[in-house]
Specification:
Oligomer: single chain
Strand content: 15-25%
Strand order of the largest sheet: 2-1-3-4
Number of strands: 8
Length: about 230
């Protein structure tokens, strides 16, 4: 049985991962640290603080007998390009399946956030992934170049603090309303709920309206099957 150490910024992500991977022959061990989200508005907060804390925690999780690490916070995931290389086990960011899908599918994307602190770093990862696909040099590269310029980030303002204060019900309702409005505002474009905390609201919008909204949970299990060799029970 493979052991996956899950690195979260909020406890509510534990249940989402447990439910998604319940039918797999794996052990999930959860590590929750909300500290960076609490510090992000400090005057002296910087990317260096994120790098240092994420590097320390990844190393600690690896030392605790994890076979792989899943980072579920998009703020933490923004520095994985550098920090994951220092860890002796595979490290997967919650947006890695999304980045792979965006490389594969030639569409225009609206990527929706609730945490403003994650927007810039995530969009850097998105554009790097699309540019990397272009540089591989096949004919579809021109499509991916177009996606870099047409991919757009939208942040639903003023609601992320709800979940950090423990008001998960109020948060999900606000996210649901925001995602539905954005999907209706951008017909013909593929709307992405960028953060794991948004996944239940994205699923609710799809159920209520038929509007397809991708979330980090949509491709996670199949991505882990491919990259970690996990298998259903």
């Amino acid at each position: 049985m493979i052991t996956i150490g899950c690195f979260h910024a909020h406890y509510s992500n534990i249940a989402l991962i447990e439910e998604t991977l319940a039918h797999y022959d794996i052990e999930l061990v959860h590590y929750v640290d909300p500290g960076l989200d609490r510090l992000k508005h400090d005057a002296d907060f910087s990317d260096a603080v994120i790098h240092e804390k994420v590097a320390q925690t990844l190393q600690w999780i690896a030392e605790c007998h994890a076979d792989a690490i899943l980072v579920t916070c998009t703020l933490f995931a923004t520095v994985l390009e550098q920090e994951a290389k220092q860890v002796p086990v595979p490290v997967i960011g919650i947006d890695d399946p999304l980045l792979q899908e965006m490389q594969r599918v030639p569409e225009e994307f609206i990527i929706v956030f609730t945490n403003p602190a994650t927007v810039e770093g995530t969009m850097v990862r998105v554009n790097q992934a699309l540019q990397q696909q272009h540089e591989q040099g096949d004919e579809s590269g021109q499509l991916h170049v177009a996606k870099v310029s047409q991919t757009e980030a939208v942040c639903i303002p003023g609601i992320f603090e709800l979940i950090m204060r423990g008001d998960q019900k109020g948060y999900l309702e606000a996210v649901r309303e925001g995602l539905q409005q954005i999907a209706e505002q951008y017909p013909g474009k593929r709307v992405i709920a960028a953060q794991l905390s948004m996944a239940p609201a994205a699923a609710q919008v799809a159920t209520d309206t038929g509007l397809a909204i991708h979330s980090p949970l949509a491709l996670l299990a199949t991505y882990l099957e491919k990259h970690l060799g996990v298998a259903p029970q």
